[in-house]
Amino acid sequence: MSRLVVVSNRVALPDETRAGGLAIALRAALKERGGLWFGWSGRTVKDVPGPVHTLADGNVQYATLDLLREDHEQYYNGFSNRTLWPLLHFRLDMVDYDRAIYAGYRRVNALFAERLAPLLRDDDTVWIHDYHLIPLAALLRERGIGCRIGFFLHVPLPSSDLVAALPEHGRLFSALSACDLVGFQTQRDLERFQDYMRLFGHGRVLEPGLIEGPGGRRFRAGAFPISIDTAHIASQAAAAVNKPAVRDLRTSLAPRQMAIGVDRLDYSKGLPERFSAFKRYLTRHPDQRGRLTYLQIAPVSRGDVDAYRNLRHELERSAGHINGSHAEPDWTPLRYVNRNVPHATLTGFYRAARVGIVTPLRDGMNLVAKEYVAAQDPADPGVLVLSIFAGAARELDQALLINPYDLDGVADAIASAATMPRDRRIERWHAMMEHLRAHDIAAWRRDFLQALDAA
Ligand SMILES: O=P(O)(O)OC[C@H]1O[C@H](O[C@H]2O[C@H](CO)[C@@H](O)[C@H](O)[C@H]2O)[C@H](O)[C@@H](O)[C@@H]1O
Ligand SMILES: O=c1ccn([C@@H]2O[C@H](COP(=O)(O)OP(=O)(O)O)[C@@H](O)[C@H]2O)c(=O)[nH]1
């Protein structure tokens, strides 16, 4: 079997605990097969970055590089998170494009190629991840790298008219034709990519999943919905009941039920709309007053980007307003926590919650939705309220599916979830859990790598 080389902006080093689905999923995938993980070290420097840092942990080797402070600003905060992130989440109104910033993004991709190329062997399988590194495969090919290269996009791909609004979209997205396989989270993302290649990318769709790029190079494309380590999360959640943090939470809630939301503090997650929907639930369902406490965990994310800082202020105001108008001396309806909670503790929190609320306006997959289901007690599972705009909704069709813009609909779904009889909860949970057992993180990795091998 060839060596697997995973390349991503964010590398989950052995002691890393920060929230984020990509890091958690890739850690699980690499642990199983072993290999090399290459990416940004998490550090910025004032002068020319030195050689890559290496580290070994069991069967996984890490090679990470520092970035110049200014390069990192342009590549990560700038083009990745002020330009591409809003564009790929259908938010053309928030896209901030600047030629100099795009040049910084390309410079960092070129640096990745320069530092990675000498570490590669001819029979390696290289698997590049996400929107931070779209040009990388083409830059590696320019350096004579001939091994198999796959690319996986963790975020959605919007309609081709939106993609085409980005200056330089042709150069950027046609670089993906240097790959042997390009993977997306859902069939819809794949279809939109094929539309883009046909309509704006000067390519041809020879058959579904087989594309000819503008330079005549053929490559495969497919949908590979990412997943979780289902069995591990189920057993971790069962064991977590004895963790002090989980016990304390349960004690502090009793005898009330809990609804939980867990999201990086990101505007794509629909948090302001969710807070408004919860407020609507409190006013539309007075019979349930005081029965449900909503815990929102929202670790701060990308705090150097204005849109994220503004969101934080907006949510603080909104949380204060909800509690100001609805709290009782012995009950706070909304608990809003901006800290990162370790993953193992989180699984115990999920299990303690009768309702899981996942209402992004757009989300590539949303692993929290899958984790919430996997963490439930089979004898008394909770109910998932899930946005139709999360990739996960394509698979978890036994959740209460809602449109996050429809505040009354979300409010009513929370009320139904909180009062759903146990037999109906078990029935819905079973169907979703069966799917997650069959389609776990190992299956995702296997399916993608088999398709890459065959490409
Ligand atoms: O690395 P950060 O800037 O802190 O952001 C965290 C990650 O956010 C995004 O995650 C996506 O990947 C998940 C796993 O496939 C998926 O479930 C989720 O819907 C996506 O939003 C981003 O794409 C990653 O690159 C970041 O590491
Ligand atoms: O305090 C937190 C909040 C989130 N997460 C994890 O971060 C990931 C978030 O992934 P998701 O796909 O839902 O969204 P992303 O943040 O990648 O957009 C999930 O595995 C969560 O369990 C965590 O470990 N601690």
Description:
The chain is of the alpha/beta class and 455 residues long. The protein has two domains: 4-227 and 441-454, Rossmann fold; 230-438, Rossmann fold, CATH 3.40.50. It has helices at 21-33, 69-88, 99-116, 136-142, 160-163, 169-174, 187-199, 230-240, 244-253, 271-284, 306-326, 343-352, 367-374, 407-419, 422-438, 441-454, and strands at residues 4-10, 35-45, 53-57, 60-68, 125-129, 148-152, 181-184, 204-207, 210-212, 218-223, 257-262, 292-297, 334-337, 355-358, 383-387, 400-402. A ten-stranded mixed sheet has the order 3-4-2-1-5-6-7-10-9-8, sandwiched between helices. β11, α10 and β12 (292-297) form a beta-alpha-beta unit. α1 packs across α16 and α10 (271-284) crosses α14. The structure holds the ligand O=P(O)(O)OC[C@H]1O[C@H](O[C@H]2O[C@H](CO)[C@@H](O)[C@H](O)[C@H]2O)[C@H](O)[C@@H](O)[C@@H]1O and uridine-5'-diphosphate. The ligand O=P(O)(O)OC[C@H]1O[C@H](O[C@H]2O[C@H](CO)[C@@H](O)[C@H](O)[C@H]2O)[C@H](O)[C@@H](O)[C@@H]1O binds next to α1.
Summary keywords:
2 domains, 455 residues, binds uridine-5'-diphosphate, Rossmann fold, binds ligand L263DTV3, globular, six-stranded parallel sheet, alpha/beta
List the helices and strands and how they pair.
Blueprint: E1 4-10, H1 21-33, E2 35-45, E3 53-57, E4 60-68, H2 69-88, H3 99-116, E5 125-129, H4 136-142, E6 148-152, H5 160-163, H6 169-174, E7 181-184, H7 187-199, E8 204-207, E9 210-212, E10 218-223, H8 230-240, H9 244-253, E11 257-262, H10 271-284, E12 292-297, H11 306-326, E13 334-337, H12 343-352, E14 355-358, H13 367-374, E15 383-387, E16 400-402, H14 407-419, H15 422-438, H16 441-454
Parallel strand pairs: 1-2, 1-5, 2-4, 5-6, 6-7, 7-10, 11-12, 11-14, 12-13, 14-15, 15-16
Antiparallel strand pairs: 3-4, 8-9, 9-10
Helix pairs in contact: 1-16, 2-3, 3-4, 8-12, 9-12, 10-11, 10-14
The structure holds the ligand O=P(O)(O)OC[C@H]1O[C@H](O[C@H]2O[C@H](CO)[C@@H](O)[C@H](O)[C@H]2O)[C@H](O)[C@@H](O)[C@@H]1O and uridine-5'-diphosphate (UDP).
Catalytic activity: D-glucose 6-phosphate + UDP-alpha-D-glucose = alpha,alpha-trehalose 6-phosphate + UDP + H(+)
Pfam families: Glyco_transf_20 (PF00982)
Keywords: Glycosyltransferase, Transferase
